[in-house]
Backbone:
């Protein structure tokens, strides 16, 4: 049953640094059940670092994280996590099914420890269209197949909060759209909140309820229609940024001296915001 849009986590005045470099400061946001939040920003703005803060894996931070809905075993919400993709070695003695099973048997990202539930694993494999190759060695699968299995693992224990760090990498456009739709469907069915770090806003744009945009040590958090305006992003970057809608795609465009420019040339970003720490 879908949960009401009540808070799961609140971040109070959270500031994050890497060494002497400020990523962002005084971040003050509330993440509610059922929200699909896109986390966007240029290179090194702290998108992945934010997920690590929530996972309690980032020591260089100040402020407070308030867990509003607590799991009675762990003292925090059930969290599902899709990490940035790193290909599995072909010699790894692990099948796709084994990988998904890890989401039930427990690991350091906050899953409840429990006995493996084969029925639940089978259901999520079918749902994520992974069943046909789930029993093959994971290192022999394509990058896209591995990524879908990671997504299945993140959802198998029915988390309240789903953290997605570039889950669309290695997928072609139809597969990107399919995976984005499946994650949104899970959120709508269960009331789970989704934090979705991505370089490609367009596949998830129909589902996004709020955007957290990080840049230049600053942040914006609001509905997409209030964030994606040239005036708003220009103020955030401190330089001229253009937001263009073209053929149902969103482009963020920076000039030669702008933060979004690469290699000194004018550059258009079709929702593509660069790599992350």
Residues:
């Amino acid at each position: 049953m879908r949960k009401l849009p009540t808070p799961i986590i609140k971040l109070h005045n959270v500031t994050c640094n890497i060494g002497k470099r400020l990523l962002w400061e005084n971040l003050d946001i509330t993440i509610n059940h059922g929200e699909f939040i896109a986390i966007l920003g240029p290179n090194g703005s702290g998108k992945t670092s934010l997920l690590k803060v929530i996972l309690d894996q980032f020591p260089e931070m100040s402020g407070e994280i308030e867990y509003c809905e607590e799991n009675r075993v762990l003292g925090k919400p059930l969290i599902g996590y899709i990490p940035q993709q790193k290909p599995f070695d072909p010699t790894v003695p692990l099948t796709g099914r084994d990988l998904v099973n890890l989401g039930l048997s427990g690991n350091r990202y906050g899953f409840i420890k429990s006995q493996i539930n084969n029925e639940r694993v089978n259901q999520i494999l079918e749902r994520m269209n992974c069943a046909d190759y789930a029993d093959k060695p994971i290192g022999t699968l394509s990058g896209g197949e591995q990524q879908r299995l990671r997504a299945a693992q993140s959802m198998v224990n029915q988390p309240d909060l789903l953290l997605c760090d570039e889950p669309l990498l290695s997928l072609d456009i139809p597969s990107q759209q399919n995976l984005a739709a499946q994650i949104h469907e899970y959120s709508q069915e269960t009331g789970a909140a989704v934090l979705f770090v991505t370089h490609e806003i367009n596949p998830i744009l129909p589902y996004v309820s709020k955007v957290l945009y990080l840049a230049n040590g600053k942040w914006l958090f609001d509905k997409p229609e209030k964030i994606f305006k040239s005036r708003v992003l220009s103020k955030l970057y401190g330089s001229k940024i253009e937001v263009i809608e073209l053929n149902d795609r969103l482009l963020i465009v920076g000039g030669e001296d702008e933060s979004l420019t690469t290699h000194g040339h004018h550059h258009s970003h079709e929702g593509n915001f660069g790599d992350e720490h």
